[in-house]
Amino acid sequence: MEEVIGMLxxxxxxxALIVLCLGTGLYFSIRTRFLQVRHIKExxxxxxxxxxxxxxxxxxxxxxMSLAGRVGTGNIAGVATAIAxxxxxALFWMWMVAFLGASTAFVEATLAQIYKEKHLxxxxxxxxxxxxxxxxxxxxxxxxxxxxxxxxGVLLPxxxxxxxxxxIQNAFEIETWKxxxxxxxxxxxxxxxGVKRIAKFTEFVVPIMAIGYILIVLVIIAIDIDQLPGVxxxxxxxxxxxxxxxGAVFGLAIQWGVKRGIYSNEAGQGTAPHIAAAxxxxxxxxxxxxxxxxxxxxxxxVCSATGFMxxxxxxxxxQNPVLGADGATQFLYQGAENVSAGPGFTxxxxxxxxxxxxxxxxxxxxxxxxxxxxxAYYYIAETNIAYLTRNLNSPIYSHLLKVLMMVVIxxxxxxxAKLAWNIGDLGVGLMAWFNIIAIILLQKPALLALxxxxxxxxxxxxxxxxxxxxxxxxxxxxxxxxxxxEE
Length: 487
Known about the structure:
- By secondary structure, the chain is an all-alpha fold.
- The chain has one domain: Up-down Bundle (Amino acid/polyamine transporter I), CATH 1.20.1740.
- Helix content is 72%, strand content 3%.
- It is built from 22 helices and four strands.
- β1 (117-119) and β2 (122-124) form a beta hairpin.
- It starts with a helix and ends with a helix.
């Protein structure tokens, strides 16, 4: 099985996808005149814009739910594996994916808002919806929905559960299968309470866990702040093959940086648009800008914090892609002996500064990071089930999904880490291919919405979206939304 998954990953994660991800981000950055820079102040302002309603969640709740999906094991274990296989330069390429990907995140989130629908009284949307309504290609929408259910419901949760179980075993010596059962039961208790319970849980947990983690890491960096300039120089030199010690992994730095960058911040992957569509806002661009900002929070803040901590403490390994004469793994750098790539690096780094505390803290942080991500995956998979079964109005399919994901969580927790990550990469790659192609074909409505938003803001208005005014068709939900506001 491992060989088959590896072969599929080699096909899906070929250089073509790397170029597509970076190229699409650059293209949308140019088309939007680098909105990720121009509208940073507006992004801050919009974080608390909009209130929750019976149909949708507030902008902040949508941000928290999307961060729940973005901020996960990729920020702790993912950064570690990127450095392990791509060297310190991989961190730079994660930054590039975040900077360029912020524009991609804007386009996909804005499209999700434009073409959202109401299902069982709640706003629902995402790539499958905008592919059908915007592109008018229903079979493509159905295909994406199926791929999303498989990826978010089956392939991706196992990675999160595996990292949680691994981290807890390292810190507390609790067997992985026991952690798997506990995580699965807590997951079931929350998701059987509905989408609103997920929103409330993530709104409370995500800010606390992200701020707490960053503060601890900043303390570690501050202790050896004199090393920071050298670490930053190492990242840039390694990223452009100017560091002789890591020359053997130069190409891998780009590959792993992009792969882990997309896995972490999800820009272009097509997962965040499902959550963006649930926001109750007066104009799609508002949620598009909020989702752009969430990419920055994920990668430029949380991932960078982990990367700097690993490099400053030296508690990481960089694997030589060329095996030794006896077939054994060799290292270009080895600062964490007998520690496998993943959460163990981060735990070793924290323990080197705070002995006896670091491993426990990372294990707890991993639990919350990964658990909220699993909740986001559930919401994504459930949204696509709602898309496929919207004419049936039956909850049975979502209940089956909940049970299936509980099984996946338990299986993922006892799986081998390498296989779990390969399965997760497969899910990310599949969704990214489908979604990026879709948003390239369907970019015009998002760009028109941005132009309309900027025009209304310049006139001193609180922008309201009327799709017909800017030539966007088949966005019927907005007529109802505007009518209800008038009443």
